[in-house]
Amino acid sequence: MNIGQVILVGAGPGDPGLLTLKGKQAIESAEVVVYDRLVSPEILDLIPEGAERINVGKASSNHPVPQEQINQILLDKALSGKRVVRLKGGDPLLFGRGGEELQPLTQHKVPFQEVPGITSAIAVPAYGGIPVTHRDFCSSLHIITGHQQAGKPLDIPFAPLVKTGGTLVFLMGVSALNNICEGLLQAGMDPDMPAAVVERGTTPAQRPILATLSTLPQTAREETLQSPSIIIVGKVCSLSPRFDWFDSLPLKGKQILVTRPRERAGTLSSRLRALGADVKEFPCIETVPYTPCPEMDRAVSQIHTYQWLVFTSPAGVSALMHFLEETGRDVRALGPIRLAAIGPGTARELKKHGLKADLIPPVYDGAHLGEALCEAGPTGRLLILRAQWGSPALTQALDRCQLSYEDIRCYETRYTCPNPEAVRTFLKGERPVVTFTSASTVRGFVKALGEMEHSHILAACIGAQTAAEAKAHGFSVITAREATIDALIQRIMEGEEYGTRT
């Protein structure tokens, strides 16, 4: 029997963008993933669809899966020949008990690797504007576990730590905050030493609490501090008001729901997160190419009879490429035909396959695409590849200038409903924003969530047709000034206070 492998992967401190490339590769190749409570949903979404997921998450004083059982799960899965990823928050070998999990593997000669993760001990202070070292303030950094076992005193050498004069970072120390501060004071640390706690660091819910060593416990109580939080003590904490870049991000604290199809949600979601937003993906539609598609088979076989190939979305491009691959062809089957794309997103999808759009309208919608084609003055037929329920605006414009075309439906848009209860909870926040990049995403959203009041939700729409659909369902609406992701993000940053809600 073949023995598998175990890879310990550090998922980082919370921000999914802080996962390492090597960690991402390991997750995407896993057959079994054993993961902790603090791993972000965005990182869990990287797990392959067919992989087994095992949640062994622990909270303070709540260990539903004991450490010994976790060790045994890793061993058993590896001995059964599986490629196992053990996914842990932060870094697996920094107070993560990763070493304990490796011991049984070595005893049974199970191959393993360890992919370090970005530790919260450095990343969380950095996101709170606190550099853990600075030449003007300290010459050392000390990372200490603040975890206190039930009924036992803290086992921390406070006096030597105080003598170092370095920055002190305490992990897992929220419940022992009073004892930590008291221990440092008794060991002779200045009561006015700058100190901080950063709650839920590197996430959109991050909250830094600044004080001094003597006042930090009281301040934390007044602010109802919760875990996970990192405690930092040292002169470098005084830099936070000047260096706190994360809380200054333009969308910090804004809750945004992204409704694009799963395969296209990533770019918008990652860019909104980079601006500080709390983003949840709710792909309430999916695009599915027609297989088989006799109409497209016939059209591609007679591609020389068309002068222009017209796409109204990236999904149309994907459907064509899927068809070519399924039928043993490639882009050479398209010959010298000219290509029209409704906007930059569709043009980028063409470029992925080595194709360049010959025409993009100045305004990215069906009506303007039709007008641009009319102005181009084609002398031959046009082939349109688009969704089952494509907007009539394109063909109406072509009819007005009496162009000859064939309109083929090569894919359908299906409504999906992934975890609607979690979305309803998310939408209970203060003035949430929902992004809509097509009228079908609006319809899919409404269908997935059923009857509910929409007026408290701000719909950020990419174009006029999408905005009209959102208004018809009672949303408050803002509309991008042009139908691009860049313009949509800019409009979200401007919010409702700029101009009319159109």
Describe the structure.
The strands form four sheets. A five-stranded parallel β-sheet has the order 3-2-4-1-5, sandwiched between helices. The longest helix has 13 residues. Helix 12 runs parallel beside helix 13. 34% of the residues lie in helices and 21% in strands. It is elongated, with a radius of gyration of 28 Å. It is of the alpha/beta class and 502 residues long. The C terminus is likely disordered.
Brief rundown of the structure:
The protein has 502 residues and is of the alpha/beta class. Helices cover 34% and strands 21% of the residues.
Low-confidence stretches: 498-502
Broad structural category: alpha/beta
What's the number of extended β-strand segments?
A: 20
Task: Output the radius of gyration.
Answer: 28 Å
Give the overall pLDDT as a whole number.
Answer: 91
Helix proportion range = 25-40%
Beta-strand portion reads 15-25%
Shape: elongated
Strand order of the largest sheet: 3-2-4-1-5
Distance between the termini: 64 Å
Total helices: the number is 19
Largest sheet: 5 strands, parallel
Features:
502 residues, alpha/beta, five-stranded parallel beta sheet, five-stranded mixed beta sheet, 19 helices, 34% helix, disordered C terminus
